[in-house]
Amino acid sequence: MTAEPVKAEHRWPVPPQDGYTVDDLFTLPDLPPHTELIDGSLVFVSPQRRFHSMMIDLLVGGLRRAVTPEMKVEREMTVLLDSRNGPEPDISVVRSDAVTGLEQTRFQAADVLLAVEVVSPDSEVRDQDVKPRKYAAAGIPHFWLVDMAGSDRHPVVRVYELDPVSKTYALSGIHHERLKTAVPFTVDMDITLDALRAL
Question: What integer is the mean pLDDT of 142-154?
Answer without folding.
Answer: 95
